[in-house]
Structure formats: C-alpha cells, structure tokens
Amino acid sequence: MDTLVEFLVSAAILVGGVFALVGSFGLARLPDFYLRLHGPTKASTLGVGGTIFASLLFFSWQEQSLRLQELLIVLFLFITAPVSAHMLAKAAMHRQLRRREDTRGRPWKQ
Fold first, then answer.
1. What is the rounded CA–CA span in Å between residue 15 and residue 26?
2. Under a CB-based contact definition with an 8 Å cutoff, are residues 86 and 51 in contact?
3. Cα 40–chain centre separation
4. Each residue of 38-65: pLDDT tens digit?
C-alpha cells in the first residue's frame, strides 16, 4: 500500500508542477494584461492545489489521520484567487487599460 500512496503523491506533485509551469509561462508570454491574468489565477491555482493535495495525501498517510490544515489552505486558495483576479480586472477596466484588438469582449467604450 505504501507504493500506491507514493505513486499518488508523486503524480499529484508532477501534475501540480506542470500546471504551475504552464501558469508561469502564461504570465510571462501572453501579450496583454487581460490575457496574462488567466495564468496565475487558473493554472497556477491548480498547480498549488495539486501540490497541497500531494501534501495532504502524504502526511495523512504518515500520521494515519486526516490533515485539515491542507484542506483549509486549498479552500482559501480556491476562494481568494478568483476574487483577486476579479478585483484586478475591475481595476484595469476602471483605468481603461489598453488591450489587444483580438482580445474578445468589449468591457467599455473606446
């Protein structure tokens, strides 16, 4: 059974790492603010969630009890990331931050 838990922890760390890497590439490579906003809020959140899920599996298995600290971290992460992205987008819209022409949606008149 230890091998199965180790495999699941390794898979969760790898999946979390891949999502975090994709999110950081999105943050660095996407052309405007509104497109760049998706990198850290979507993919990186899943990356950190996968890593914390691996921690939850590992330490719950080692101590033979459910670790609630990791569940609270994931809960707060999944609540605060969309709220912060929404606030950043609203601030950018308020300041009428320039966007690329191929960005979909017209949140304000230009």
1. 17
2. no
3. 6
4. 777 888 788 888 999 899 899 888 888 8
